[in-house]
Amino acid sequence: MPRANRPTAVVTPADLSADNQRLLLESEAVRSVLAERETLRRREAVALAESNMLFAALEALSGERDATAALQALLDCLKTRLAIEQACYVQATEQGVRVLVAIEPAQAGLVLPIPPRMLERPRRLGSIAPLLLRDAMPEHFPALGATLIAPVAIPGEAPGALLLG
């Protein structure tokens, strides 16, 4: 059969424009789905990292012989996992805020010039300097920039907190 006998479709500029619009909408839909998948992937990666850190912290706590050793292991784990310079457990005492356990054993027993009321609720501070009751921290305690204070309620104990910086 000769070609001349077959009908040919006529493509108008309106048809091309409509096809172009359809392709643009489909492309946008695909981009949107890909963006949603990437957002979910990032969210899941963060959740996995948090779960792994929690697992490591629980493993550190459960593998020790007493509460002080368990807390020391937890602080070491937090230092490694969070890449922080300072981690310690502090408690309000009559003398002030005392370091009970710290990454550096020489810091245990130091009294920090921080008001005990600062241990009552979670805090995220750009600098701990405005809170100090004196001009400086003790000699063996590093100057802290950004600091997290996470209260830890232990029944029958004085108010305490993890101090991370």
Could you please describe the fold and organization of this structure?
The chain contains two helices and six strands, in the order ααββββββ. By secondary structure, the chain is α+β, with helices and mostly antiparallel strands. The chain starts with 12 loop residues before the first helix and ends with a strand.
Summary?
The protein is α+β, with helices and mostly antiparallel strands and 165 residues long.
Order of helices and strands: HHEEEEEE
- Amount of helix: 40-55%
| Alpha plus pi helix count | 2
Task: Give the terminus-to-terminus CA distance.
Answer: 85 Å
Which oligomeric state applies?
A: single chain
Strand order within the widest beta sheet:
3-2-1-6-5-4
Low-confidence stretches: none
Percent range for β-strand residues: 15-25%
Q: What's the average pLDDT?
A: 84
Largest sheet: 6 strands, antiparallel
Number of distinct beta strands: 6
Coarse structural class: alpha+beta
The radius of gyration computed from the alpha-carbon positions, rounded to a whole number of angstroms, is: 30 Å
Shape type: elongated
